[in-house]
Amino acid sequence: AQSVTQPDIHITVSEGASLELRCNYSYGATPYLFWYVQSPGQGLQLLLKYFSGDTLVQGIKGFEAEFKRSQSSFNLRKPSVHWSDAAEYFCAVGARTGTASKLTFGTGTRLQVTL
Amino acid sequence: NAGVMQNPRHLVRRRGQEARLRCSPMKGHSHVYWYRQLPEEGLKFMVYLQKENIIDESGMPKERFSAEFPKEGPSILRIQQVVRGDSAAYFCASSPDRGAYNEQFFGPGTRLTVL
Q1: pLDDT for res B34
Q2: Closest Cβ–Cβ partner in A44, A100, A106 for B91
Q3: Given its phi and psi angles, is residue B40 left (phi above 0), alpha (psi -120 to 50 degrees) or beta?
Q4: Predicted pLDDT at A51
Q5: Which of A101, A107, A109, A110 to mutate to test the interface with B (most CBs of B within 10 A)?
Q6: What average pLDDT does the segment A72-101 reach?
Q7: Gap between the Cα atoms of B76 and B111, Å rounded
Q8: B103 contacts B29 by C-beta, under 8 angstroms
Q9: A44 to chain B: which residues are within 8 Å by CB?
Q10: Is-cis flag, bond preceding B74, omega within 30?
Q11: pLDDT of residue B113
Q12: What residue in A sits closest to B57 (Cα-Cα)?
């Protein structure tokens, strides 16, 4: 069974500073990996996804993530954080079931941005 | 193209009552997923449905919970005889059926409070 670990429950960074959110996964085959962002009281918005190919993927809002098979990691990065990035971030692994997939989520990292 | 719609957005029930949560997938999407998010936790997969079929219900509690996705109309997640532990945010996601992998689009969620 697949699993996702986000070791950082809460991270605080200053506006303009760089950001890296960690994600480690466990999966028995080629993983499908996602990062979602959730603002308070809202649903989830997809930031980026990795299916195959180039291990560095670009997403929306200036985010990127790098898939490292040897480390079973898919860390999310942003070179310069904006106050509006404060939210909860979830890493997820997609498992294959027929032609579509259910997602297994990590417990999330809450990002606080100080001005 | 309207996104995934869920209603109600907020639902309050007393212990022992029934809760019905509705999800209308995006136009053209034939796959629906339900996830539950307990306070301070990530999302947990509950069930995956296609029209008139339950494909994977491995995350559904064995009792009191049921889901359907009829030929016409929204998908329904039904919780009978609710208990306080059912208080959570319930998210629906949908995906199209276009081949190897299908991205999931999430609705805004229904926040269930059991008194």
Answers
A1: 97
A2: A44
A3: left
A4: 85
A5: A101
A6: 88
A7: 15
A8: no
A9: 43, 91, 106
A10: no
A11: 97
A12: A102
